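User: I'll paste a sequence; please echo it back and then give the predicted structure.

Assistant: Echoing your sequence first, then the prediction.
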Amino acid sequence: MPLPVLFIAVPAVLGSAGVGLTAKAGLDQHTAKKLNDKSNSRIENAGLRLERLREECGISLQKLGEEKLYVLNNSIKKFVDLFSQLKNVDFTNSIGLEELKRFHIDKKEFDELEEMSMFALSVGEGVVAGAAGGALAAFGAYSAAGMFATASTGTAIASLSGAAATNATLAFFGGGAISAGGLGMAGGAAVLGGIVAGPALLVMGIITGAKSGKDLENAKANAEKANEICEQFEKGSLQCIAIRRRTYMFYNLLAYLDCFLTPLCFEMEKIIEEEGTNYSSLSCESKKNIACAASVAVTIKAILDTPILTEEGYLTDESLKAVESANSDISRIEKIKGEK
């Protein structure tokens, strides 16, 4: 269905029957129609571009939400289960672990990881068809700890779905095609980083019964208005692209960290089986393995704690800083792991 954009009705006959158009009036009428058609086309193309990018951005946020759930339900859950078995854990005085001291995981951080894992499990069990898309997009866009981990496990999916339903940005990404009038918010308006896009902006009105000269003047005014609308749509499109790129950065980072943590967890499991659960009596090599696993878990938690978007739809500065910090942590941990 075409966008509900400019529709300028240009009378085929002006005046009463038997009155002909002058040559100038006819030329003005033809020029006005061409100008209006061009304005319509420009707005339609800009709207279709925004619609495509909106859909792609919504999918990327949903995929990030799925990856967060996967990491929490697998490598993080396994780490939490294994780490909770250890006693007398102290990284501060371990020989050869000086570089890992900055990754100290305290009880509060560990408890938060455990809560996140429990929350993710309840979300995974509660996600059903119809609620999954918006809920997972919410989980992808915002801080797992700050926004959702406070919910009880029994209301986790309801909390996520509620956020997706009431948040303007998420509603925009999951609210249906623009061409069908579905901008995802009650009343037909949506907000994306301060860019307002709604039917009131799309509809320019209908001009009927005007003189040919007036039609041309209106067509020129409509062309100027079309410039403003296309500029708004382009800003929204660029915002969608930026959000999608940041989302991919988080997704790739989490996927890599998950692949890093999983084998470390298997090593922890073997250490506990062979050397026991008293950290202070473990070999230096085993302590280093466990410290590395804790380091990766802390880095994952930092990513999960960081929202990509503000509720107004802007990219957060802390999300970029979190990516840079995580990459730095990974380089440091890889170096230590390679020195084993």
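Residues 212-275 form the longest helix (64 residues). Residues 1-21, 149-153, 177-191, 196-213 have pLDDT under 50 and may be disordered.
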